[in-house]
Amino acid sequence: MNTLSLAVVGHTNTGKTSLLRTLLRDEQFGEVKNSAATTRDVTEAPIHDGSRTLVKLYDTPGLEDAAGVLDWLERETSPRLDGIERIQAFLHSEAAATDFNQEAKVLRQMLASDTGLYVIDAREPVLARYKDELTVLSWCARPLMPVFNFTHGADTAAWQEMLARRGLHVYSSFDTVAFDFEGEMRLWNNLATMLPPPNPLTELAALRRRDWQQLDQEARQAVAAFLLEAAAYKQEIDADDDPQPVQQQMQEALRQRERQMQRELLQIYRFYREDPVAADDWVLQPLRQDPFDAALWKHYGIRTTSGAATGALFGLGIDALTLGASGGLGTAVGGILGGLLPNMQTLSDKISGRQTFYTDEATLNLLAARALDLLARIQARGHAAQNDIRLEHGRAPWPDNRLPSVLTDARHRPEYSSLNGGSVEKAEYSRREAAEKLAVRLTTVQAPYA
Ligand SMILES: Nc1nc2c(ncn2[C@@H]2O[C@H](COP(=O)(O)OP(=O)(O)O)[C@@H](O)[C@H]2O)c(=O)[nH]1
Ligand SMILES: [Mg+2]
Q1: Cross-strand pairs, 9
Q2: Phi and psi at residue 389, to the nearest 5°
Q3: Engineering a disulfide at 77: which of 49, 86, 271, 373 sits with its beta carbon 3.0 to 4.6 angstroms away?
Q4: In angstroms, rounded to a whole number, what is the distance separating the alpha carbons of residues 127 and 134?
Q5: CATH value of 4-199 in 3.40.50.720, 3.40.50.300, 3.30.470.10, 2.60.40.720
Q6: Domain ranges of the chain
Q7: pLDDT tens, 223-255?
Q8: Residue ranges in the chain whose pLDDT is less than 50
Q9: What's the pLDDT score for residue 362?
Q10: CB distance 357 to 251 below 8 Å
Q11: How close is the Cα of 18 to the center of ligand 1, in Å?
Q12: Cα(47)–Cα(64) distance, rounded to whole angstroms?
């Protein structure tokens, strides 16, 4: 199948270059400015599928004086010629090299392409100059699909009626700033209906869909890896030490790790601008670990609600803690407990007078909500968007007391967290497994973003 060449045409400032940026997933393509004639020459941009080029897109300068070109054509060429002949006569004329140099570039590219997208600023009324543009373009005799841009809240009824009178019944809407993946699929599918088969647009749509799912998976894995690190983050100090510095240090480390995850998400979706996520103040409360935390006891296989042995241990713990400060007894009792139960390190540390800090459930939930909020915003962001992303805390994915067990388990896996300073390489495999498990739990949240 041949490569499809597709010219993107229209009046100046309707968002042609922006449309290309979004379709190419490249926010650095071309130059976008809210002023006349930013794009002065035709620019080619291919879309590959790995082995071959499916489509070549052409960004073109804006049509600024289609009325002048139409006057010239009516004056200088015979109506008995067909459209292409009249356009060719124009392209060979002196006028095409001088007064209508910019329009000539567009028409030359239109003739050289298989098809075109005519970009419309949907906020604009249907002016005579747009009708003239469509007349001149129709003489190139290429399938032309109108695409409405700036669609947010715009009423396109008058436009649709004018287009229908010109035989343009198939059109698409596409907001290049607020991206809608299904909208892009409709654009390709609609355009495919206007072209003789076979054409590579079905393949292109399938490729884009595969890519989109893949990106979503990668993004959720990056979020999961971040949450596991936050959950496994743990700092210990002596009972007598001031907890404030360690709390602050933990907050800062978590913020930085969050920032890193945000950059990863943006890069996965190919947004390369430095820090488009607006900074905000959010409060983190790493909590002091309670040695009598039910979840902790459970982790060590101790039921806290029943069983005489447990009750005895519990009582022993309380006694040990109160006694611990006033002598070496704490350590002794810790030793006894450590002997009774394997892996009693944390507990015996507690009893021998240490403080452990970790990221509590509510904070993990907050971090998850923020990450999913960012992901939803990135997925709805066109590559022409220039505004900062402002996070809201979004919806918590889980109730605070019902975090996925893979996340709460990470609390007892300090080796999962690079924030703990050690090497995470040894735990690489189980960490990745845990991240995959958690990523699946992150797909259930659907945020209603416009
Ligand atoms: N709000 C909004 N602004 C857009 C949209 N598309 C383009 N723009 C802005 O419109 C201006 C012109 O866009 P540009 O792509 O350079 O238009 P071109 O002259 O047709 O290539 C730029 O300031 C863009 O940021 C859109 O869908 N929504
Ligand atoms: Mg442009």
Answers
A1: 118
A2: -90, 125
A3: 86
A4: 11
A5: 3.40.50.300
A6: 4-199, 214-443
A7: 999 999 999 998 888 878 888 888 888 888 988
A8: 290-294, 296-297, 299-345, 348, 350, 445, 447-450
A9: 79
A10: no
A11: 6
A12: 28
